Amino acid sequence: xxxxxxxxxxxxxxxxxxxxxxxxxxxxxKSVYEILNLNNLGTFYELxxxxxxxxxxxxxxxxxxxxxxxxxxxxxxxEGETTLVSFKIPVIHCSSCIWLLESLHTLKPExxxxxxxxxxxxxxxxxxxxxxxxxxxxTFLTNLGYKxxxxxxxxxxxxxxxxKSLLVKLAIAGFAFGNGMFFSxxxxxxxxxxxxxxWFDKYKHxxxxxxFLLSTPVVxxxxxxYFKSAVFGLRNKxxxxxxxxxxxxxxxYGRSIYEVLTDYGPGYFDTLxxxxxxxxxxxxxxxxxxxALSYDRDYKSFYPIAVTRVDFNxxxxxxxxxxxxxxxxxMVRNQEIIPVDSILISGSxxxxxxxxxxxxxxxxxxxxxxxxxxxxxIGSVLEVEAIKNVDQxxxxxxxxxxxxxxxxxxxxxxxxxxxxxxxxxxxxxxxLAGIYWIRIDEEKMWQVVSAILIVACPCALALSAPFxxxxxxxxxxxxxxxxxxxxxxxxxxxxxxxxxxxxxxxxQSKKSSVSYTGQEIPEADLLNLKSLLKNSNHPLSxxxxxxxxxxxxxxETEGFQDIPSKGYSATVRGQQxxxxxxxxxxxxxxxxxxxxxISKNDEYLGRFIFKNEYRANLxxxxxxxxxxxxHVLSGDNSSEEAHLRTIIPTAQExxxxxxPESKLNFIRELQDKGQKVAMLGDGLNDAGALxxxxxxxxxxxxxxxxxxxxxxxxxxxxxxxLDKYLLLTKDAVTIVKFTFAISLTYNVVGLTIAVxxxxxxxxxxxxxxxxxxxxxxxxxxxxxxxxxxxxxRPI
Length: 795
Fold this sequence. Notes:
Blueprint: E1 17-19, E2 22-24, H1 27-38, H2 43-47, H3 68-74, E3 77-79, E4 82-88, H4 95-101, H5 104-107, E5 111-117, E6 122-128, H6 134-144, H7 152-155, H8 164-193, H9 198-222, H10 224-235, H11 242-261, H12 269-288, E7 306-310, E8 316-320, E9 329-332, E10 342-346, E11 349-352, H13 354-357, E12 363-365, E13 370-371, E14 376-377, E15 382-386, H14 394-400, H15 414-438, H16 442-455, H17 459-478, E16 481-483, H18 486-494, E17 497-501, H19 502-506, E18 507-518, H20 523-533, H21 539-547, E19 557-563, E20 567-572, E21 575-580, E22 594-600, E23 603-614, H22 618-624, E24 629-633, H23 641-647, E25 653-655, H24 660-672, E26 677-681, H25 687-692, E27 695-700, E28 712-715, H26 722-755, H27 761-791
Parallel strand pairs: 17-24, 17-26, 24-25, 26-27, 27-28
Antiparallel strand pairs: 1-2, 3-4, 4-6, 5-6, 7-8, 7-9, 9-15, 10-13, 10-15, 11-12, 11-14, 16-28, 18-23, 19-20, 20-21, 21-22, 22-23
Helix pairs in contact: 8-9, 8-12, 9-11, 9-12, 10-11, 12-17, 15-16, 16-26, 16-27, 17-18, 17-26, 17-27, 18-26, 26-27
Pfam families: ATPase-cat_bd, E1-E2_ATPase, Hydrolase
GO molecular function: ATP binding; ATP hydrolysis activity; copper ion binding; P-type divalent copper transporter activity
Subcellular location: Cell membrane
């Protein structure tokens, strides 16, 4: 029998629940299975095996959503008995998810309908708010495993990242191309058949004028981005690839106007519109490739939309975060982010600052201690007093620092480097050919010059990099390495230095290995300890509870005492136990060690030592990265440096106790030495370093969860395969160079014929798209072959 959960497919390691002849990994998955079967929705599992999502064990309370002001801010529409709300649900991943979320009305009659937008990972739900509260709806979705994301970012109601102007330009080019071919057909037919139609001869000037009208907005509006890019490059003293493209566009357009005005021919208006349509189409698909992923988020993506304010009489009130002021007291519950710099008033704080500092261990806070925004409370409810506004807190200032912003021009790409020489050579050839032919035949000179500039239009050259890198982006994406844009692939190929953050990058973010040192503990005592551990919310207690491999039975505890920053004690079945720090158990703590000490009836038994659990196959990975300079940064202490040296013997430098600015400065110092740096990190503390590096790679075990600004989002389980991704990017650049060679060969042959005066502008206009097709075919074939080498399956 499989040890994987029937609902979510995850291994049933810590908990194994048998129900209805099936195995489940937790009560949450079992409950969802029961709900679906009771409502005859068992088809969910038939659509996609193991397609379910495990319900979040740390579900937050959603009561604040029922506050009128917050309700109005979150919902799309509410009138009478009907309310419409759109929730962002990142875990939507397959057809079964869509089917289930669109079948919610069969689970709850208060829901009228629900509709999923798979691309945006959202579901819009219509429901009766008199019968079903908004908070109850959010809780219901969470219990099904589809926890909605509700924060400041989603409340801003930003539109999806559609480039509407590009869409309009594409539509105009498509309209002009289609209609241009229609109006050009009689002329083409006449040339092919050797005779023309009487009515066409009579109205051909009208048709040509219509073609001119259709192509003009395409040239000056649809192609405006190419003009802007060319001007931008020239202003920066760089001849980028758009300079010769613009030159080719103007020559085609100008030559067409000349032919029409002189009645020399029909011009090339339809060819020009078609060329620009396909170039814009490629750009559109490139921009839409990974719109569902966010590579550049700010603090709003994980700040709550509302907080619970408490007055001095203990009265609680839910307010929007934007209304929070200095001096206000708020409640912070288990697993909630602290949204503002504050002072702890009451409660026992166990603050996880990993987003800010990278330190994996929690920090204990006492009443009167300062807590920075961005920390996450793990444990009991806290009451804190705001000492700064949201926009003045440390976390917000960290994001807004200019040093943490990346500014790039994109002018130093391989394509632009080659195009600089390409353009100069083409212009030189054109000038020399013009001087030669004007002395022989002035009319022939214009034909030769036009043919040269048309046949040499670097469309194939311009398409080679986007098509190659576009294919590589799709290959990488299907292997959980999501690249922001094609420029990033080229930058990755140039990288010679890799900087790894330790916590959450080369270590498992949610796992730690536990070892025991001390007396052998009888099973009866282990059962008692497990019952005692169940009373604590401290993360180390939870980890230890999962580690103890004894039956999950609960015995009543007596005299439970929790001493902040020390530990806790209680009596279980007549035996008194102490669990906590070394001093709490009368022992001397070991330096640079995270451990939980255990005593029974004031007799010391031993300690459980917690160490980060490193990702699998790291030694094999670093053994393959011998051509790179390796550095390791960490916000943790240096307790595991010796172990890290065995995993990464080639590391040039390991730096510990690094804060965000230290990491950023470390990257900057490497760049000042002329090194091209890729940084791999996972937390907010890495945001500045990721932006400063040439390529920032955000490692996330859930690629839809919060990630700092980055160029790449990489699934954590794929870290050990980093070498394959880097090699594929280098192959991509090699493929681009080959396509450049094909394009240049075509240009050399075409230019030779054109310079000799044997090629008409019409033939040049026909040959131009043929070269582009050959480039597309070559890149498609070669990228497919290279992907098979690394990932062993077709793209």
